[in-house]
Design goal:
The complex is a heterodimer of chains A (about 650) and B (about 500). Chain A is mainly alpha-helical. Helices cover about 70% and strands about 0% of the residues of chain A. Chain A has 23 helices and two strands. The termini of chain A are far apart. Chain B is built from 18 helices and two strands. In chain B, helix 8 runs parallel beside helix 11. The chains are: A mainly alpha (about 650), B mainly alpha (about 500). The interface between A and B is large, with 64 and 71 residues.
């Protein structure tokens, strides 16, 4: 059943958006059914697999043989992701019908979008590390195509390349990580080792770490490499640069990348790795550090940006940081819980932003203003998304973000190293609330647009409104799902998956109060600076002006990477090319010249008589045989041969 | 049982002669010959263990062998000995595929078509011969027979600087062939082999002292390495490619380079294991240099064809690395990789040929935004580039993955070198696509249209195979692993 479902999604080519929508609707129904089935009675679904490539056992590196398989695995982890991918995917597809109707190249768009969703579904359902990697790369290339959808725009083509290359760096690390795990477990473990069984994920609390020789430096490095791969896909520091530039793609694509597919893949990888492979304590600290730091670091950049989509993009990086933080601290399911809620409110924010862009034709917040008069639904939807993002109860983000902060707090006692990153993440709550409401006030409040040349805004057609309504509803209630026993099965089911249902102890309440306070404070600050059409202008002489410039230039990371990529590497390669042409090939041509000079002298013996040439040939052959038959054996005897 | 291999040789020979004589109808004869060739290769494959549908678990070995005494004087026994195993079958399949694709792609060739198509067929005939020959002299004969038609293809149908390139190609590879021949003959004489048959040489080579094996191995390696080509013996390749006509480039990259890899596996690594082991560090060194050099230089190229040529050097470096590992997984990876590279580089050379036909230049920086005017062509370029940079579900991925896994298994962290280079490889392909295919229109004449149907069909065939074998690599793998290779299952 599941293979058939993945297969239809992979195999088809559609010519109209509605076909794609219909298929993604079918996928959504199936995906949700699977998840509900798994939630109600875990283990309902039979997992299937077939062998993709097989080498028989032979002495040497793999005494037990070597297999690569393709298969499916439905467990709480994957069914939760399945819901996210298929539901958000369907809504984005539906929304695209309205949003993209005036663009050309639509068959390409829907085909790529469908392949994107199919790859992500494949990744989620993969039952082994190699299949995971395969779909992982496919997800990457689909995002390359979609980010570069407007390929006539140089900036879009450049952003697509950048996204591909930066994630490729992560992919290389990931691949090396696979090799490292492989070298430890290839021949160890049940049924003749991992190699023989096709790297299949096996349930049972971190089955691999307790093996003899585990917890070694090799495993630590392997874990770090997995983190590197995840950081590339999920845009974590220092591989975060591509995500804001990926805003060059259509807004619908941004919504999909940010909510359900591309970046979610990185977090999902960390979750899967922590469940099925296990991380060493050093790895965990590194993951916590990357997550906590990124949560704060990205939020600071969102504070100053004038582009509505990029503000949301930075907020994604920051929210992903929270998920990574949770997984690093050992709470994979809590991280995924946040991924679940985040998918809905982030897709909502993007689609609402898309409605705004659709209506006014610009992404510059400073040109907008007063939109709430004309676009009530969008304004409300964006506000709901913002409240969820800011972690205000009872919206979805509150429950999962608080769950993360609470979980991490609960292990601070045993892991004092986590403190700084916990505090950074906590501080980011304030920034988050501030920047998202700064965007809301700039776009929607006030009397009218600051740039009078903008067209009169209007709401989109129903296909754009329905997803907004559905996602708004989800952004309100998704967090509450955790109180349903079935959903708790997903979060807590499966042996040894650590997760924490919300509790209401004094500590929890105090933490929640502080974080809600921070969130409300952020909203208040945003209102006081930007509310009611106000525009806060930082004076040129202000002491924090350099900070603002640093943030606007994104800490100069992009400049630095471009320098490495374009200047340094390209210069080296040009130099190498020069060396190749003039030194290596020059030597060849030099030899040529020497021979040419020599042959001039030899020309005197070229008489033109056939018999003479025949004599030379015979003489040459004779010399060859003399060399082989007389000199050779002599050398042979000297060297002690036969 | 039918002497299938001789039938194939006869087909190709007759087809070649027929094509030369057919005048303006040469392309039809060439196409007919290629179709028959492909069908015969399919028959060969179908009767080999490992191909789907072949149920019996035959002990792997050379199949379809034929041996006839050819020259027999006092101490010299030369046989017409041919046969195939899994590895050579893969290369034969590649030969047949590329021949069909090249003939279809060149359908519009109007400049002396009889000569052109005849030489294309002759080149493929030579390559087929190299892959089936099981006798030292026969092998060398076919080996040299490949050079001549390629020399004329470059020298007559090539670009403005064709004479220089053709001569350079010929002399360079010919010198290498001579060294290889000396090595092969010395191998026969010193080992005391009773005949020049592969099996006789293979059995007798064990008598040689390790030091002698090393010297012989190095001589053979030099011969094969120039064909590969490895740095620093590679400079003939970009020149030859830039000047060669598109069909010539496809065969050059797709088949001629593979002769080096095939020869190294069959005649050097397998026959002289001790020599191979002592030369291993050298091979690793050369392989790593070649991998890095090829990729870094690709980044610097402005000519699309030169870029693809240098990326070929990079890929063949990975092949050498995989062979040098001396593991069953590595050898499997090397063969897969050569097959993949044959298909993908053929596709990319065809695409750059089409770019040249349509726009009159291959200079990447003077073109831009060609996608809207030529969507099919730019799809082909994208497909080829993505396949070449190792995208899953396309043919190179299983090959490269296996190669890297084998490298990791054999050399540990040294695998970082090819892995990091992978990023550079992705970089130069993506950058090329960004500059040439996307962005603002540049250097595109107004009256330009998409590629003609035959060029599209030739490339389309290769794209389809890229996807097919990318999704089902086991089709190839199951054949390859049934080869009589030292230390492989069943031997």
């Amino acid at each position: 059943m599941i293979v058939g479902f993945a297969g239809t999604r992979l195999g088809r080519l559609e010519w109209g958006g509605w076909v794609a929508v219909a298929f993604s609707a079918a996928a959504m129904v199936l995906g949700v059914l699977i998840a509900v089935g798994e939630a109600m009675s875990p283990g309902t679904y039979t997992n299937v697999q077939f062998t993709w490539l097989h080498l028989a056992p032979a002495p040497g590196a793999f005494p037990n043989g070597f297999s690569l398989v393709m298969g499916t695995l439905v467990d709480p982890l994957s069914s939760l992701m399945l819901v996210v991918v298929t539901v958000v995917g369907f809504l984005v597809m539906l929304y695209s019908i309205g949003y993209m109707h005036h663009d050309h190249g639509l068959p390409r768009y829907y085909a790529e979008l469908s392949l994107f969703l199919a790859s992500m579904t494949g990744l989620v359902l993969a039952n082994n590390l190699l299949e995971f990697f395969l779909f992982w790369e496919l997800v990457g290339v689909c995002s390359y195509f979609l980010i570069g959808f407007y390929y006539e725009k140089p900036s879009a083509a450049s952003a697509a390349k950048e996204a591909f290359l930066v994630t490729r760096v992560g992919d290389v690390l990931f691949l090396l990580g696979i090799f490292l795990y492989f070298s430890v477990y290839a021949t160890a473990g049940p049924n003749g080792g991992w190699a023989a069984n096709g790297f299949v994920f096996v349930h049972g609390a971190s089955p691999f770490l307790p093996l003899p020789g585990a917890n070694t430096p090799t495993l630590t490095i392997a874990g770090l490499l997995i983190l590197g791969g995840a950081a590339g896909k999920s845009a974590q520091f220092p591989l975060h640069v591509w995500l804001p530039d990926a805003m060059e793609g259509p807004t619908t694509v941004s919504a999909l990348i940010h909510a359900a597919t591309m970046v979610a893949a990185g977090v999902y990888l960390l979750a899967v790795a922590s469940v099925f492979l296990g991380f060493t304590p050093t790895d965990q600290l590194a993951i916590v550090a990357v997550g906590g730091f990124t949560a704060f670091f990205a939020a600071t950049m969102a504070v100053v940006h004038p582009d509505i989509k990029r503000v949301i993009a930075y907020s994604t990086i920051s929210q992903l940081g929270y998920m990574v933080l949770a997984i690093g601290a050992g709470f994979a399911m809590v991280g995924l819980y946040h991924l679940f809620t985040h998918a809905f409110f982030k897709a909502l924010l993007f689609l609402a932003a898309g409605s705004v862009i659709h209506a006014v034709g610009t992404q510059d917040l400073f040109k907008m203003g007063g939109l709430k008069k004309h676009m009530r639904l969008t304004a409300a939807a964006f506000a709901i998304g913002g409240l969820a993002l800011a972690g205000i109860p009872p919206f979805a983000g509150f429950w999962s973000k608080d769950d993360i902060l609470g979980s991490v707090y609960s292990v601070l006692g045993t892991h004092p190293d986590y403190w700084p990153f916990f505090l950074l993440a906590f501080a980011a709550v304030f920034l988050t609330a501030y920047y998202i409401f700064r965007a809301w006030f700039l776009a929607f409040s006030g009397d009218g647009p600051r740039d009078p040349s903008l067209p009169t805004p209007h709401e989109g057609p129903w296909v754009m409104q329905v997803p907004l309504v559905v996602l708004s509803a989800m952004a309100v209630v998704a967090g509450l799902f955790v109180f349903f026993p079935g959903f708790q099965n997903l979060l807590l089911g499966g042996a040894g998956l650590p997760g924490i249902p919300p509790t209401f102890t004094t500590t929890d309440l105090a933490l929640s109060a502080v974080s809600v306070g921070l969130g409300a404070g952020g909203i208040g600050l945003a209102w006081s600076l930007w509310g009611n059409g106000r525009v806060f202008v930082l004076s040129e002489t202000s002491a924090i002006q350099p900070v603002r410039r640093l943030l606007l230039n994104r800490y100069y990371f992009k400049v630095g990477y471009d320098w490495i990529g374009l200047r340094a590497v390209y210069t080296i390669s040009r130099a190498a090319d020069f060396f190749d042409r003039f030194v290596i090939d020059g030597a060849v041509r030099g030899l040529e010249r020497i021979f040419a000079a020599g042959s001039n002298r030899l020309r005197s013996i070229q008489t033109g008589l056939v018999s003479d040439y025949a004599a030379y040939v015979v003489g040459g052959l004779l010399a060859l045989f003399v060399m082989l038959l007389i000199v050779g054996p002599y050398l042979l005897a000297r060297l002690g041969g036969s | 049982m039918l002497p299938l291999i001789s039938i194939v040789l006869a087909t190709l020979l007759l087809g070649t002669v027929g094509t030369f004589l057919a005048g303006s109808r040469a392309r039809w004869v060439a196409l007919g010959t290629s179709a028959v060739f492909l069908a015969e290769v399919a028959l060969l494959l179908a009767s080999y263990p490992g191909w789907p549908g072949y149920s019996s678990s035959l002990v792997p070995g050379f199949s379809d062998t034929e041996t006839y005494s050819w020259i027999s004087v006092a101490w010299l026994h030369v046989d017409y000995a041919v046969g195939v195993d899994g590895i050579s079958l893969i290369f034969i399949l590649l030969t047949a595929i590329l021949q069909v694709a090249t003939v279809v792609y060149s359908w519009g060739e109007t400049h002396r078509p009889a000569g052109y198509f005849g030489l294309v067929l002759l080149t493929c005939l030579g390559c087929f011969g190299v892959f089936v020959a099981l006798d030292v002299l026969l092998f060398f004969l076919f080996w040299e027979a490949v050079l001549v038609p390629m020399f004329f293809l470059i020298g007559y149908w090539g670009g403005p600087n064709r004479r220089y390139a053709a001569l350079k190609f010929f002399i360079y590879t010919h010198v290498a062939s001579i060294v290889m021949l000396v090595g092969l003959l010395a191998l026969v004489f010193y080992s005391g082999a009773t005949s020049l048959d592969f099996s006789a040489v293979y059995a007798a080579a064990g008598n040689l002292a390790p030091v002698v094996q090393t010297f012989l191995f190095l001589a053979l390696f030099f011969g094969f390495a120039v064909k590969f080509p490895v740095v620093p013996f590679h400079t003939w390749l970009p020149d030859a490619h830039v000047e060669a006509p598109t069909g010539g480039s496809v065969l050059l990259a797709g088949l001629l380079l593979k002769l080096g890899g095939y020869g190294l596996i069959r005649w050097a690594v397998e026959v002289l294991p001790h020599g191979f082991h002592s030369a291993q560090p050298l091979l690793f060194l050369i392989a790593f240099i070649t991998i890095v050099w090829g990729s870094v230089l690709s980044l610097a190229q402005r000519d699309l064809k030169r870029l693809v040529a240098y990326s070929s050097i990079n890929h063949m470096g990975i092949v050498l690395l995989a062979i040098a590992l001396d593991s069953s997984l590595g050898l499997l990876a090397a063969v897969l990789l050569m097959f993949a590279h044959g298909i993908v580089s053929g596709l990319l050379f065809m695409a750059s040929g089409s770019v040249h036909h349509q726009y009159g230049t291959r200079d990447i920086s003077s073109l831009g935004g060609i996608t809207p005017s030529a969507p099919a062509l730019s799809t082909m370029i994208m497909a080829g580039s993505l396949a070449s940079l190792g995208l899953p579900a396309l043919i190179s991925f299983p090959a490269e993955f296996t190669a890297f896994l084998a490298t990791w298994n054999g050399l540990g962290y040294w695998v970082l070198i090819p892995l990091v280079v992978l990023v550079v490889t992705a970089g130069f392909y993506l950058w090329m696509m960004q500059r040439m295919l996307f962005g603002e229109k540049k250097g595109v004449p107004l009256d330009v249209h998409d590629v003609p149907w035959y060029e599209g069909a030739g490339m389309g065939l290769l794209v389809a195979l890229t996807v097919l074998f990318g999704i089902l690599p086991s089709l190839l793998v199951n054949v390859i692993v049934n080869s009589p290779i030292r230390g492989w299952p069943g031997t």
